[in-house]
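wait is this the right file?? whatever heres the structure
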């Protein structure tokens, strides 16, 4: 890949008055006195309720964070820049909501694969690690490599609870824990302390990092207890050079880090032919690289602040926006009143959204113009700098979505400015290529609605595929629930709202 030109920006930083610091004991509050004994069937979060009623009841309230968003519908340009993420269904990009919905949103997502009662299917169990509280016990029973070599279908009726207590807490002691072994392995390779050697504060971060992190996967050969050769989908992290977005991008761009000897990519955009790195959710890395992590805050300090009722003081497990617990989450460090605090955050969001819209529009147009350049006869040499800029712009823009402007304000501004610059530079280079090959009056097709964007992608097989996906939701998944309902592993308090919005409403009700 051609060496990229680095431009230095004058970045307006959001400077806040923070009086918390790493030495503060922000957890110095009275502790709830509870007897700790083994939790039977810990995958069923309701079984923790007797000993930890406040934590369970507050966790159950993540049901209230119910708003569902089809982000491709609200931001159709995402369909263009994500083209290639699913050849059949087209790109899928759902908004975030409470942990209560973690398994159902995964199950209903069009690109999550379609479980089938008989025969082979296109699913993997890896995603269950971060979408269900059943995964720790399944791994304990079957072994991690067996779990990572299996299909979602295999565990269907055993993996219906959402994220819950067992994902973060040891059922014998209730202490924090991480389940997948990759985390310690990757931390050690990055020269960082493993979970058991980490401080109390960092353990709180790492519990979240086991799911909220940037990763890629490798296919690992192994032999099971029956002597059968198997292949597991194993998680890896790009932390070799550091945790910043620039550090991770350099790792992905260096082919020496991969068996193929080539820079890593998750998919190739079929419009521009750009090999794209698809950021997962680098919340851990962003926190550690910017102001909130550097002053000593952990994820629970803001998202699970301490709260009290008549009987106890406990961590609020209604994990959501800190603005909903602004007194406990924000104002104890930012010496502002509630109105000023919300105004400050609103200003950051507005600034971020304006920059991101500029980056997204130019990046989508760069993909479409690149497609026209290929059709005109452009060579690999012509297109190399274009694809390099599109690849980098995508990585930076999609690494800082949603609330990154709060987690990492400096890194977010820097990343989006870089995304804008490289998307525009790619388009400038394409103008020269158009002149070279005589391209005149190219009209970029409209993509201001999801329907128009999907028409560009020409997803001819999508309707038939979605019939199969919807059939799974209407039939096989219901069979799984009926089977699970008679077991002690299933949390019967998981009753979804009658008016719940989801991908099912968008895709299946009219089929």
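ok assuming it is, sequence goes like this
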């Amino acid at each position: 890949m051609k060496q990229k030109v680095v431009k230095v920006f004058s970045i307006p930083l959001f400077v806040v008055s923070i009086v918390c610091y790493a030495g503060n004991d922000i957890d110095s509050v009275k502790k709830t006195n509870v007897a700790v004994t083994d939790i039977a069937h810990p995958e069923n979060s309701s079984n923790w309720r007797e000993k930890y009623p406040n934590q369970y009841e507050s966790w159950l309230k993540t049901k209230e964070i119910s708003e569902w968003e089809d982000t491709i519908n609200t931001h159709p340009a995402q369909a263009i820049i994500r083209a290639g993420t699913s050849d059949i269904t087209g790109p899928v990009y759902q908004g975030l909501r409470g942990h209560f919905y973690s398994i159902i949103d995964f199950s209903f997502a069009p690109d999550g694969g379609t479980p089938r009662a008989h025969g082979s299917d296109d699913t993997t169990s890896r995603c269950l690690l971060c979408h269900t509280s059943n995964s720790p016990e399944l791994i304990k029973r079957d072994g991690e490599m067996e779990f990572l070599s299996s299909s979602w279908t295999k565990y269907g009726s055993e993996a219906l609870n959402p994220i819950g207590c067992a994902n973060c807490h040891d059922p014998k002691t209730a202490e924090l824990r991480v389940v997948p072994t990759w985390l310690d392995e990757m931390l050690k390779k990055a020269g960082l302390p493993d979970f058991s050697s980490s401080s109390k504060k960092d353990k709180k971060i790492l519990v979240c990092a086991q799911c909220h992190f940037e990763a890629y996967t490798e296919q690992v050969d192994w032999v099971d207890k029956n002597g059968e050769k198997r292949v597991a989908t194993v998680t890896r992290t790009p932390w070799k050079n550091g945790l910043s977005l620039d550090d991770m991008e350099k790792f992905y761009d260096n082919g020496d880090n991969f068996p193929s000897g080539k820079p890593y990519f998750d998919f190739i955009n079929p419009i521009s032919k750009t090999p794209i790195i698809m950021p997962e959710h680098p919340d851990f890395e962003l926190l550690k690289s910017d102001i909130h992590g550097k002053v000593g805050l952990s994820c629970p300090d803001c998202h699970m602040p301490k709260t009290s009722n008549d009987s106890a003081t406990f961590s609020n497990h209604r994990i959501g926006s800190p603005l909903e617990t602004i007194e406990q989450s924000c104002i104890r460090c930012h010496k502002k009143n509630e109105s000023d605090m919300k105004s400050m955050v609103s200003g950051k969001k507005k600034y971020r959204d304006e920059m991101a819209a500029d980056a997204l529009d130019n990046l989508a147009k760069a993909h479409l113009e690149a497609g026209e350049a290929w059709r005109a006869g452009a060579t690999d040499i012509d297109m190399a700098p274009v694809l390099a800029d599109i690849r980098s712009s995508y990585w930076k823009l999609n690494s800082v979505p949603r609330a990154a402007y709060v987690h990492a304000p400096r890194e977010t501004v820097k990343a989006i400015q870089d995304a804008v610059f490289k998307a525009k530079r790619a388009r400038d280079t394409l103008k020269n290529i158009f002149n070279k090959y005589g391209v005149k009056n190219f009209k970029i097709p409209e993509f201001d609605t999801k329907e128009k964007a999907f028409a560009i992608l020409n997803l001819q097989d999508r309707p038939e595929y979605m019939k199969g996906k919807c059939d799974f939701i209407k039939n096989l998944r219901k069979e799984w629930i009926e089977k699970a309902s008679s077991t002690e592993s299933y949390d019967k308090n998981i009753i979804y709202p009658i008016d719940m919005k989801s991908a099912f409403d968008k895709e299946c009700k009219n089929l």
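Residues 1-35 have pLDDT under 50 and may be disordered. so i think its the right one actually
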